[in-house]
Amino acid sequence: MNKSMKRFRPLFYVLLGVYALITFVPFLWALSASFKTLPEIVKGGISFIPKHFTFDNYRTIFHQEPLFVRWFLNSAFIAVTVTVFNLLFNSMAGYALARIKFPGSTLMFFSILAMIMIPGQLTIIPSYLIIKSLGWLNSYQAIIVPMGAQATYIFMMRQFFISFPKELEEAAELDGLGRFGLFYRVVLPLAKPALAAQTIFIFMGAWNEFLKPLMMMSDKAMFTLSVGLNTFKGQYISFWNYIMAASIIMTIPALLIYIGFNRFFVKGITFTGSK
Amino acid sequence: MAKPNVKRMWRDAVSGYSFMTPAILIIGGFLLLPIAYAIFLSFHKVNLLGTVSYKFTGTANFERMLDDPRLWIALRNTVKYALIVVPSQTILALVLAAILNMKLKYRNFFRVAFYLPTVTSSAVLVLIFMWIYNKNGLLNYFLEMVGLPTYNWLGDPSVALIGIMIMNIWSTAPLFMVIYLAALQDIPESLYEAAEIDGANGWKKFWRITVPQLKPVTFYVVVMGIIGTFQLFDQSYIFSAGSGGPNNATLTMVLLIYQYAFKSLDMGYASALAFLLAVVIMLITVIQRLIFKEEKLN
């Protein structure tokens, strides 16, 4: 920054501060509502500090809404399984495309590139019909299996492995490790940064997914938290204290992962070029 | 020597295909097959009662679009939405990135903080904003305080879409900010130094160097923004409880497709709409890639 800009330095801090406020206020407002009593919510006002601080809203949603815990567990199970599948399958496919010469590999690589461009909306209806004919509606696999491998991240892993030093693998091969041993013992442990970036994106994507569970699950017990939250809103219209408490609970796991892994985020975004 | 090579070729083929198998099965069964199926459905009338049956109807589904008033409403909403949201979020993202790129203290804190809305579930964000938008909510309280008119943000058709726009600008701009921030690192420092020798101030450097150098990235951000507006669904669905209301004000293309497919169970027509939407999005993507490539060559 040169001298002419130094004069403006305070202005830039003010701008950053104001925008940080704009970012935080909605979250803080939701958090404060989740600790307020219903009368205080109804009365309105803009106090961020609850007059009568209470945990009752959280207690109520866990006690009176027996399915809430179930929805949370459904979301957690789906998000974790989808993440594990993707880490494994995308890395395997990416590695094969980067390192192993086999008939059809070039065709597969270009098909993967083409798949990335297909917008998800095209496949909504046929996927529903396919899942239905498999008898998978209202089951975990209806969401887990179709989301189990993703073209974008296969491409990302392939790019990662291509720029990976070959010498290590060659040395391991001389030691008599086969392809699979090589992959699990040498390649995967060294791919940690790429796997971490993938973990965040895929976990967040699965945890926040709305349309797929909305379509595939009609049995209330099989809802994920995102769909459950929407039903909850319809059920408790104007009970904003409950709705906000439920929203805060849904935000916490994603938030923890974000705070823990945020340094991998930027790398991942700039790598895939989009979300 | 030929023998071990053949053996190796076989071994590579076997291991290559075993590594690819899970991806081939999933992408084949739940991406490739659905694409073909979607095209098939677009030209058929689908009967879902009992066993699923199809009746070939030629281009009837596509002809029907011409006089479907709700399609035109959804398109008009999308265009309105894109015209406001895309420029706003692009400019906001660029300004934030440019400020963060100056060597200020705590920049990392600000970067992490700004990105927060992007990682929050859209279901949660919509609920939080509905809470802010309600009649006695925070936004109206604030508007009243500074002497501006207040609105029934959730129920008034003339402002409902604006509510979703504000929320989306707020939650999408940080994503593009990160992309801009990465691109800013690639601008050679020497360009700025040369401009300084010529006596350019910070403002001039921003307009004469930063903005033109970022042109390809801006193009990418704008195109991605447009595609994002075409794909808007969660927000409208939760905001309007699936109806696209009040008075169709928040009806989007994907919400319309969802309604035709799962409310009217008209899967053939819904597939035709989805097919058209996909073609438009892919055309935009292809054009973007072609222009992007040319920019890089120049």
From TrEMBL, chain B:
A GO CC term assigned to this protein in UniProt: plasma membrane
PROSITE patterns: ABC_TM1
Top-level taxon of the source organism: Bacteria
Signal peptide limits: none
Annotated InterPro entries: ABC_transporter_permease, MetI-like, MetI-like_sf
Start and end residues of each ABC transmembrane type-1 domain: 75-288
Coarse class of the protein's main subcellular location: membrane
Protein's membrane topology: Multi-pass membrane protein
SUPFAM superfamilies assigned: MetI-like
Biological processes per GO annotation: transmembrane transport
Transmembrane segments annotated in the record for this chain: 21-43, 81-100, 112-133, 159-183, 214-233, 269-292
Subcellular location field: Cell membrane
Keywords for this protein: Cell membrane, Membrane, Transmembrane, Transmembrane helix, Transport
Entry keyword Repeat: no
Protein family per UniProt: Belongs to the binding-protein-dependent transport system permease family.
Protein name: Sugar ABC transporter permease
